[in-house]
Amino acid sequence: SMKTRHKHRSSEVFIMGMFSLMDIIAETDLKAVLRDLPLEQDVTDAILGKESDIAYILEYARAFEMGDWEKLVDLGHHIRMTEEEIGKLYIDCMMYADSLFELLPQK
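Predicted structure:
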């Protein structure tokens, strides 16, 4: 299943999610940033919007955030996780991201 196949890549999946919005946040060329990072090609492809095996995880997260339930159903056969597992994982990721933002210096 997708869950067990990519379990050892949790750090890469987290980075994939963080960098998927980097060009908007930093107003920079994402390809240039990614060129200097030691990421597997399928992770880089997913961030750049290209199809890859791991890209389904990022697509699923985006659909979840947008409330695109129809797309979630379509992507569901690739993820092979229950709705409860995905919901809990999403909340855990959001809490972790919030904790990282709390570490940033306040302006």
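Summary: The longest helix spans residues 83-102.
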